[in-house]
Amino acid sequence: MPKKPIKQGYKIYGIADHGYIYNWMWSSREKGYQDMVLRPTLTPTGCLVRSLALSLPRRFVTIYLDNYFISVPLFVELRACNFGAVSTTRPYKEFPQYLAELKNRFALKLEWNTLLAAVVQGILCLAWQDNNIVLGLSNIHIVDKAEDFREKARRRPVKTSINGRIIRKVFGSDYVKDLQIPYFIDDYNQYMGGVDLANQFREVYETHKPTFRNWWPLLYWLIDVACINAYRLYRLSIVSQRPLTHLQFRTELYCKLLSYSEKAKLQSLRVQLGGKRVFNPDVLHLHYWKKRPKQGTCAWCSYRLKCEKLLNRGIKGVAKRSVTGCSFCDVPLCREGDCWTRYHSNDVPY
């Protein structure tokens, strides 16, 4: 799929919330779709969406879909299964042709916030004029009352925006302005993108390696998904303290899984030094000596002694205590010696 992070030859269809993947199904050119229950009124992709929705732990939730899957019969079926469904869409045969014609012929001619809607088989089909005309489907929204619109702070498009001239008239000289937009649009903007977020997390730290066996990509993908799901659950569980970054969490996970390894234990100690300790040319001026509210153990001395204990070397000296330290890293450091330099160095020895 062009411009997608998935490059291994399988298509993975997932249902996710804020990057946590609840369930998934796969397809390939050779095998086609994974086995699933087919419905006579739905296309194979529509049956796939229905199967994923029914695998959720509960009903009466709203699903926000990519326009690749959309059809009026699918939304009717999801409503029958007690699921809400919202999505933007592309023109197709069940969608009202006069709304599709608006997008094809009048995309740049209507005033901003123009809204036209029609009901097909109990499903709301609409066309809304923003920078361009947006086509959408929903089985939970209505647009015929004043309460169906919400005031949102919107930013004025830049002058270089191709279609921004339509909405720029509304802003006048204001850069930010509270404007009334349909609940449908605001809900879609707020809640769409759970699978995209999971893909973004996976693409940054991918475990995939080139292989000759066609099942290896699925195994690597499963490992990535397990790590990402664990990270998302971790972020939900941490309330009272500063959470680890994604990289720190992955490193700590690696250290816990390979805790029998001496190198993993040393890497865990490096993570405990903190994520902001390394000098960066852009923030160099932020690292400076500062007197702390109370005396504390030098972060570098403590790290050095833990490494010596782990490697069964003779422990030399003791961890000194200091009332000063780095303001940016928020750690105590010895005023004398090379603790400041070593702590802020990229080249930290094992």
Characterise this structure.
The protein has 350 residues and is an alpha+beta fold. It has three domains: 11-141 and 183-195, no CATH class; 196-272; 284-343, no CATH class. Helix content is 34%, strand content 22%. The chain has eleven helices and 13 strands. The chain has helices spanning 44-54, 72-80, 97-105, 165-171, 183-191, 194-204, 216-237, 246-257, 262-272, 299-310, 339-343; strands spanning 11-17, 20-28, 32-33, 62-64, 84-88, 115-120, 123-129, 133-138, 149-155, 176-182, 289-297, 321-326, 331-332. A five-stranded mixed beta sheet has the order 4-5-8-7-6, sandwiched between helices. It has a three-stranded antiparallel beta sheet with strand order 1-2-3, sandwiched between helices. The longest helix is centred in the middle third of the chain and has 22 residues, at 216-237. The model has no long low-confidence stretch (mean pLDDT 84).
Quick take:
This protein has 350 residues and is an alpha+beta fold. 34% of the residues lie in helices and 22% in strands. A hairpin with a 3-residue loop joins β7 (123-129) and β8 (133-138).
Span between termini: 42 Å
Can you summarize the main beta sheet? 5 strands, mixed
How much of the sequence lies in strands comes to 15-25%
Q: Output the structural class.
A: alpha+beta
Q: Tell how many strands the DSSP assignment holds.
A: 13
**Quaternary:** single chain
Give me the side-by-side strand order of the main sheet.
4-5-8-7-6
Estimate nothing, just give the exact number of structural domains: 3
What's the mean pLDDT score?
84
Return the string of H and E elements: EEEHEHEHEEEEHEHHHHHEHEEH
**Rg computed from alpha carbons, rounded to a whole number of angstroms:** 27 Å
- In the predicted model, the low-confidence regions spanning at least 5 consecutive residues are none
**Helix content bin:** 25-40%
Q: Helical element count?
A: 11
Given the C-alpha coordinates, what overall shape results? extended
